[in-house]
Amino acid sequence: MLDETGVVVCWYGSPNGRDYASEEVVDRHLSQFYVSEEVGKRQPYRDLRAAVIDGRITRRAWRRRRDGSAFLGSFDIEPVVLRDGRVQGFSYVASAPT
Q: How large is the average pLDDT for residues 25-41?
């Protein structure tokens, strides 16, 4: 889960040993998972904005693994919206090839 600015507040990684551990990502921005080229283009912020506008986004894009290597994976971002319409945060679900 991400807060309304894209900072990780809760993390459930897979137990395969290759995934990020909770203490490595909590309190850090979503951009840590993006490759440098996308960070430079502000893609993490654009993805959050698109999720708010569209209600959800699903993308297939290059992401960064724990060891720094890149992989082509899929991810979904969906806003968590309060009754008054304010965005409280986002759910972020990513999948990588095994």
A: 95
